[in-house]
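This entry is listed below:
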Amino acid sequence: MAGIYLHIPFCSKRCHYCDFFSVAGTARKAELVEAMEKEIRDRSSYLDEPIETIYFGGGTPSILACREIAMLLEAIYDEYTMAAFPEITFEANPDDITSVFLSELKQLGINRLSLGLQSLYDEHLQLMNRRHDSAQSFMAMELALETGFENFSVDLMYGFPNLSLKMWEQELKEIFLYPVPHISAYHLTIEPKTVFDKWLQKEKIQMPNEEESFAQFKLLRSMCHNNGLDHYEISNFAKPGFYSQHNMHYWSDVKYLGIGPSAHSYDLSSREWNIPDIARYIAGINKGERVYERESLDKRDHFNEYFIRSLRTKWGISLDFIQQAFGNEKVGYVKHVAKKYLDNGMLVYQDKSMQLTEKGMFISDALLEDFLIL
């Protein structure tokens, strides 16, 4: 099985925390969609397995007209072998959601929504430079349910300036008034050259300390568990049967094709990514000279990526798999590095796999770095 990701890089305005490739406004949108359709058709030989998932991400995919979405989906269905019941996810901003729009998405075969709520507090949404308010977030969830989208996810952010533990608890309580089957929750990370980065340097905002952030993370895990959501990946929680199949591809050794500027592709032996430039992307596709970079993966890369992918999930890493795929020497290496984390309670060994504990999940980036072979 394989997946296809389509990157829609347009936003009405840039969020102050975002470092993904996107541009404010919709100039050249029609040209870009045409170029993406061409790339879909031109690269049909990249994947030789049935397509199990399609994911519209961004940017803001809900900025597209339904006819543009239909054009991209039609190209995929024309050129690729499809699985019997593919998961087709569509990211949407709450202020783009209407019952008519959702009904049209359903008619196009889209069966999973990802709603970018981020917060239910208007003052935090304004600080983020989001273009919706909390009332639109509630309405988006209500409309999703009314139009039959039982499979939907909401994005939330914690570890945010001026977000107290009490406020976070109230926010989660309000989310769970709805039968939300999936939550993607991210601790705010200040990325270089973003507006938040500049504000932090000028002390216009202040991040919560580690103790406050960890308390919010623990509360998130506890409330998700109490509402039937399984913590199946560091930032993702879902009811049984509602795991994101597309994201599971990223955490497994599964091929995927990335369409659009800055989109990444993986064919098990190499990675490649399109240039993050709309004008050059369009020009290259139209000339039949796609502008991209590529790297081949060696044994060391595969070992490192196995750790980065697998240790993020509830299933963890398998020493049996490491022995079969990489040999006894790497098993010894893993045991050596893991010892201090097993001793200090950041890792646990059970069911023949090594898994992050709650404390380990919270510092996962630093922990993962220790295992990488440079």
Q: What stands out?
A: The chain has two domains: 2-249, 299-374. The chain has 15 helices and 17 strands. Residues 2-249 form a domain with the TIM Barrel fold (CATH 3.20.20.70).
